[in-house]
Amino acid sequence: MISPVGDDFVKRYRLEYNLEALERVKAELGKKTYERLKALLEYRLSGKDFDRSPVGEKIALAFSMGSDSTATLKILRWAGFDVLPVMVKLPQIRDVVLLRAQSYGAVFVEIPAYMERISAQIQKGAPICGICHSMIMDAVEGYARDSGIKIVASGDLLSSGLISIYKKSDLITLNLPAFLAMDKREAISVLGRKYALGFGCPLWRAAARNAPVLKRFAIQRVLRELRARAIDDEIARTLIYDILQK
To answer: Model pTM?
Structure first.
């Protein structure tokens, strides 16, 4: 499913830092949950195998059917967690994607006034990805609270260190790929199938055609991921070419 990081100095440093982050929320986690998450980190560091029987902990996952959230779903289930994929029904998501999400056991939630807020951003020529992500996470967290689930996971590759796992109000946020010091290529490999790289959703592409300045923000985002080693040169080049051709 995933492999140890070996002698990769940067990834080892991040994993050891993430162990500190895990210790900070230890009191908020059940004993088995804490031990299983720690075992995952130790597996990445040393390759030491671990018990993957059911933990008995339900996790709500912000699910988009993209490579990062799908890899997160597969890894957490492989590690013994009961993961509930929570997908926000956005107008730009095609029906075929919703049907595929159902095959993973996804539940669906909606965001009131989503297009009104996004349209206001588009009219200003402002970036939309950040506000979209924020609304999605708020919706998933709301579902988790209503369902009595205390851990919310995401497929975030960047939030390493103390923000790879942390307490947010009454919930625990787990940015699993960052927590395991994974990169994009590793996430794709977990899928076990071909994955077409591209930047942005249909809504972003339409917005970028009307406000080309959005392409600059998108390229800055790709370069940020490259600097953080979440993606490599080849992936960054592919994404930037895709952005410029929109």
So the answer is: 0.95
Distances (CA, A) of 5 to 33, 79, 161: 22, 17, 16
CB 82 within 8 A of CB 55: yes
User: CA of 76: how far to CAs of 33, 56, 145, 193, in Å?
Assistant: 11, 12, 20, 19
- CATH of range 9-48+57-191; options 3.30.565.10, 3.40.50.620, 3.40.50.1970, 3.30.1340.30: 3.40.50.620
Backbone angles phi, psi at 232, to 5 degrees: -105, 180
What six digits make up the tokens of 156?
């975030």
Which of 66, 85, 71 has its CA nearest to residue 149?
A: 85
The string of pLDDT tens digits covering residues 66-101 is: 999 999 999 999 999 999 999 999 999 999 999 999
CB burial class (10 A; 0-12, 13-18, 19+) of residue 31?
exposed
